[in-house]
Specification:
CATH architecture of the largest domain in chain A: Orthogonal Bundle
Helix content of chain B: 25-40%
Mean pLDDT of chain A: 90
Strand order of the largest sheet of chain A: 1-2
Largest sheet of chain A: 2 strands, antiparallel
Radius of gyration of chain B: 25 Å
Number of helices of chain A: 17
Strand content of chain A: under 5%
Helix content of chain A: over 70%
Low-confidence stretches of chain A: 386-390
Largest sheet of chain B: 6 strands, mixed
CATH class of the largest domain in chain B: Alpha Beta
Largest interface: A-B, 29 and 40 residues
Number of domains of chain B: 2
Strand order of the largest sheet of chain B: 6-7-8-3-9-10
Strand content of chain B: 25-35%
Oligomer: heterodimer
Distance between the termini of chain A: 17 Å
CATH topology of the largest domain in chain B: Rossmann fold
CATH topology of the largest domain in chain A: ABC transporter involved in vitamin B12 uptake, BtuC
Number of helices of chain B: 17
Number of domains of chain A: 2
Order of helices and strands of chain A: HHHHHHHEHHHHHHHEHHH
Distance between the termini of chain B: 33 Å
Chain lengths: ~400, ~525
């Protein structure tokens, strides 16, 4: 009986990870293994860079009480447009451009966060307004044209590949595999140390067997992924940017008091307020950080596409929102993890890429995505309901 | 044999762990005004919820006979069809809709195509005149005062062709003049043959309108008193209301009161946050010594919670004035965070809505009010320390849970209350304000909470306890303040206090209301 409940809680905890694996296998078979080509594996995360990055910010918004930010697609477009014009018309250097672009995102973030946090404009409406505003401004900046990006140092900052002289050549990139192995070893050591520390302090820990299984699976995935990368062009710089953002936000939400406040306000705003937490500040920061990440995604996508037009980022907010909910963030706020939404984002990415490679028509891709999102949220609502009843 | 419009026989209602009603009997004669009195939690509202079908047939035991026929109400609609209408203390009107729309909500006047608004408004105005209200039926509810809203509720009841009108604390939010008007209207309706049941804490009003008075205490009927000649002695009612025996439901305690004053409040006044001209706390001054348990007694709505929350970093109210001293220094606390930093804690009366994050773990809840205590300088949480702290409280005050990683929502009421107390003990305050700390928890858990309070004052902290349960105040406090209608009306040493004295102080202060012009 006990092992049964244990198995079911493990299943519950890793439902989405298991779903991800199944979906991946499904599409690998469906595409006759084409999904597993080194190029496709490498592109999987890069194509979805904006989802991975923006989902981190969206998670904070959703944590505050199921609130979403509808304006991020437009913010992304506006910031990308400004960056493109700064380089094209004003011939600014890549460094200054990136700096100014991030500053503009921050200004947008202050604008959104102020109205939502301090003036209590409902987030849905404030960000809907932002969606129109920034889309329009973006097109104004672009003068309704498509602007190409020719600044090589800007492009290199985001879309080049790590190239270690003397080690990597045009045909093979062992640096990726070496890095992967190094990360795997480091992770193994860290996880074992953290477990040992917990044991020493008499905290509850998973059994040694399950810890080892976990480590082996994670290490295997990392090494397999890096092996694929090494067979293509090596480690993409954009992957490093994504990892940086994800790690920072995972750290904030898990380890800091600042991050804890998002969960507190979303879990029970009144209780949080009476505990000395200022909900206005929390709302402000959620939308501020969201806008900054949207702006940053703008730079990533501008570099990847190599051009910016007025329709860039259309409906991107929906991908970020979907990733969060598929990844187990509660639609009522107060719960959700960065690791969870990463699984959600990658699941979405695998589906997108799998369906594209398979050649499923666009219209059906939408149908599938909608069904998956609904199923994930139904699962969340139903399983939470059961817990509440116990 | 009297002509009874209503007989409720042996009504018993169980909530998990609590017997809210225990074999209650109520007989109401046709054409009388019947008063139902009792302390908070005596079961008055529960009984009326059974009668109206809010608590559906099957969830209680016992029989309801209405006009001699047995009734099984499954929802409010069933009882309303028979002319039984209940008006709750919390008015159920929608502010943004008009009087007429509210009056026929769920009972719309149908025309050939959709709602017949002409019929609606003309009917509404007719009923408005019956209750003596000179408002247009198209006026929005939010544009009229509480007193008039109460009258609209009555007019709404009339529109449903009411035979038995139940009013739950109808005058609690009315001023003297409005109360008097409402009571006189009930007498007027009585002449026209309507039967009413009125629930009230204001005994002067009860004595003024009621033909008979039924007293409930701890979920049982105590007695029904005749008041045909309107001259009942209020002490007689009070005795029935509070006359229970005190057994040792409280831990014995030593007194640790020192002469040092840790908290003092002078001339504190607070206004309602929305209706800013309504004074909720009126010129209250009090003080708390080190190591003292100070009680605040009063009826619901006396302004005790509002007083406490406004003192706790202005978390309630508008137009707050007065002086607040902590450790002999005047403080101006603008936010909850400042209040916590100055050594004040407010433990809410509503742990589920205002106190705890039910979807978070015990450990995360306990540390929430003072997270920096378990963080390093950069604001990074030491999760190990957090769990350690939580384990410590779990052991110390015996929170019954397998692990502190359990979600608070899965705990029983008593254990949730312990988590809430742990949270505020962790915040390490000098003065802990407990608002109804034992509401809705069983007797055993109550005892444990009392023990925690004793431990805290033994450590030199001070406790302010707001409670509606008189025995609890008498059993635990060193000193008791009594509040009524926003003002302090009495202060007594608990050694000298009795339940009768406290109720007496409340009722005498409220008595001015009616007797002046009655």
């Amino acid at each position: 009986m006990k092992t049964f409940t244990k198995a079911s809680t493990v299943m519950k905890k890793y439902t989405m990870s298991i779903a991800l694996v199944l979906v991946f296998i499904f599409f690998s078979i469906l595409t006759n293994g084409r999904l597993l080509y080194a190029q496709n594996v490498s592109n999987l995360l890069l194509q979805n860079a904006y989802v991975l990055v923006m989902a981190c910010g969206m998670l904070l918004c959703i944590l505050t009480g199921g609130n979403i930010d509808l304006s991020v697609g437009s913010t992304l477009c506006l910031v990308a447009a400004v960056a493109a014009q700064l380089m094209d018309k004003a011939s600014m250097s890549a460094f200054v451009t990136i700096l100014l672009a991030i500053m503009i995102s921050a200004v947008i973030g202050v604008w959104q966060g102020f109205w939502i946090g301090y003036i209590h404009v409902p987030p849905f409406i404030a960000t809907l307004a932002g969606m129109f505003l920034f889309r329009g401004l973006g097109r104004v900046v672009l003068a309704s044209k498509t602007v190409n990006i020719q600044n090589n140092s800007f492009l290199n900052a985001f879309i080049s590949y790590v190239d270690v002289p003397g080690l990597d050549s045009k045909w093979s990139h062992p640096s990726a595999l070496i890095a992967g192995i190094a990360v795997a070893v480091l992770l193994t050591v860290l996880m074992l140390i953290s477990r040992a520390k917990k044991v020493q302090k008499n905290y509850e820990v998973d059994s040694m067997v399950s810890t080892i299984i976990k480590i082996v699976i994670i290490d295997a995935l990392i090494i397999a992924y890096c092996w694929k990368l090494s067979n293509y062009k090596g480690i993409p710089v954009m992957l490093l940017w994504i990892l940086l953002v994800v790690l920072i936000f995972a750290f904030i939400t898990m380890k800091t008091a600042f991050g804890r406040y998002f969960y507190a306000v979303g879990g029970n705003e009144k209780a949080a307020k009476l505990s000395g937490i200022d909900p206005r500040r929390v709302y402000f920061w959620a939308y501020f950080l969201m806008s900054v990440l949207a702006g940053f995604s703008g730079l990533l996508m501008a570099a990847r596409i190599g051009a910016v037009d007025g329709n860039m980022g259309n409906a991107y907010e929906m991908d970020a929102i979907a990733a969060c909910f598929i990844g187990g963030a509660s639609a009522y706020g107060g719960s959700g993890t960065v690791s969870g939404i990463m699984v959600g984002a990658i699941l979405l990415g695998v589906m997108n890429q799998g369906m594209s490679i398979y050649g499923l028509p666009d219209e059906w891709q939408y149908v599938v995505k909608g069904a998956v999102l609904l199923a994930a949220v139904i699962f969340d609502v139903v399983s939470n309901h059961k817990v509440g009843k116990q | 044999m009297p002509d009874n419009i209503l007989m409720m026989k042996n009504i018993t209602k169980l909530y998990p762990g609590v017997k809210a009603l225990d074999n209650v009997n109520l007989e109401v004669e046709r054409g009388e005004i019947h008063a139902l009195v009792g302390e908070n939690g005596a079961g008055k509202s529960t009984l009326m919820n059974v009668l109206s079908g809010t608590i559906p047939y099957g969830e209680y035991e016992g029989d309801i006979l209405y006009n001699g026929a047995e009734c099984q109400f499954k929802r409010i609609h069933d009882s309303e069809k028979l002319g039984i209408v209940i008006i709750h203390q919390e008015l159920a009107l929608i502010p943004e809709l008009s009087i007429g729309e509210n009056m026929f909500l769920g009972n719309e006047r149908q025309g050939k195509l959709g709602v017949d608004w002409n019929e609606t408004y003309s009917q509404a105005e007719k009923h408005l005149r019956e209750v003596g209200l000179q408002e247009k039926a198209t006026t929005l509810i939010k544009d009229i005062g509480t007193g008039k809203q109460q009258l609209v509720e009555i007019a709404k009841a009339l529109s449903k062709d009411v035979k038995l009108l139940i009013l739950d604390e109808p005058t609690s939010s009315l001023n003297e003049e409005e109360s008097k008007m409402l009571l006189d209207m009930l007498l007027q309706f009585k002449k026209q043959g309507m039967t009413s049941i009125i629930i009230s804490h204001k005994l002067s009003e009860v004595a003024y309108v009621a033909d008979r008075i039924t007293i409930l205490r701890d979920g049982s009927t105590i007695e029904t008193i005749d008041n045909e000649d309107r001259n009942i002695n209020e002490d007689r009612i009070i005795k029935g209301m509070v006359g229970r025996e005190l057994t040792s439901r409280f831990p014995s305690r030593e007194h640790h009161v020192s002469s040092d004053i840790v908290m003092e409040v002078k001339n504190w006044s607070v206004h309602h946050p929305v209706y800013t001209d309504k004074c909720v706390v009126n010129n209250v001054s009090f003080l708390v010594h080190k190591g003292e348990i100070v009680g605040f007694s009063g009826l619901q709505g006396a302004g005790r919670t509002e007083l406490a929350m406004s003192l706790f970093g202005k978390s309630y109210g508008s137009g707050i004035s007065g002086q607040e001293f902590l450790n002999n220094k005047e403080v101006h606390l603008k936010t909850e965070q400042e209040a916590i930093e100055h050594g004040l804690a407010y433990v809410t009366e509503d742990r589920k809505t205002n106190g705890l994050i039910l979807i978070d773990t015990i450990a995360k809840n306990i540390t929430m009010a003072r997270l920096p205590k378990i963080c390093d300088k950069k604001g990074i949480i030491d999760v190990g320390m957090e769990n350690h702290v939580a384990e410590k409280y779990k052991e110390a005050i015996d929170i019954k849970t397998p692990t502190v990683q359990q979600n608070v929502g899965n705990l029983s009421g008593g254990n949730q209350q312990k988590v809430l107390l742990s949270k505020w003990m962790f915040a390490d305050p000098d003065v802990l304000i407990l608002d109804e700390p034992t509401r809705g928890i069983d007797v055993g858990a109550k005892y444990e909470i009392y023990c925690i309070m004793n431990d805290m004052v033994a450590q030199g902290k001070s406790v302010v306890m707001i409670s509606s349960e008189l025995p609890e105040l008498l059993g635990m406090c060193d000193r008791i303040y009594v509040m009524n209608e926003g003002a302090l009306v009495a202060e007594m040493d608990s050694a000298a206090a009795t339940q009768e004295k406290i109720m007496g102080a409340i009722l005498r202060s409220g008595k001015k209301t009616v007797q002046k012009d009655a």
